[in-house]
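Our preliminary data section would be incomplete without showing what the modeling component actually yields. Below, a chain of 217 amino acids is followed by its predicted structure, encoded as tokens that our downstream tools consume directly.
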Amino acid sequence: MVGFKSFLCGLLYLASVGAFQNPLAHVWTHAVPTEMRAVIDPNLYNNFLLDPAVVAVVSAAAGAAAQVPRIQQLERDLEQAHTELMEMEDQMVDKIKILEDQLFEMDTEFEQQSAREKKKYDMTLREEIEKTTKKLKEDYQFSLDIKLKDAKSQMLSEKLDFVNKLTGDKQSELSLLRLQSEKLQVDNHKLEEALDLSRNELEKMKNTPTDRKWWKF
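Predicted structure:
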């Protein structure tokens, strides 16, 4: 690549000094030393100038020299494109870094938000559980109170029935005892009357004449 550039620079020099107006003559004048030109046969020089191969080579060199500015411009464009590409690559790396940082921040924020939402959900769920538990306890206590009242009412009713039955039995027994007492009173009264009658009879017997007495008291 360096040799090609040197060759192109040489061609540019030749072009700058007007070598391509008569390139072979210019080569003879500037490239061949004066001492050599003095000893070289002029016919050989003329043959050299008129040689088609030499003319073709020199013409190709002249055409290549004409492309040197374009090649240099292309090299400058390539270097500029390379520089711009490197700058774009650096910008792309910076953008990727920014996007990665933003993505990390979004992930962090999402995790924090998820943690807050989870905590909020847990608190809400805990409150709902506490409310439900309290409601169940209240309902159970209310149901228990109702059942307890029903049980007390049933027990009181059974107790009243038992008392009424017991009282009824006692009243029946008391009535029977009263009847028996009244009967005993009647019988006792009859016995007292009989006893009084017997006593009267005895008194009468005591008061009878002596000769009629057959026992002594």
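Residues 1-5, 11-24, 213-217 have pLDDT under 50 and may be disordered. DSSP finds six helices and no strands in the chain. Preliminary results of this kind motivate Aim 1 of the renewal.
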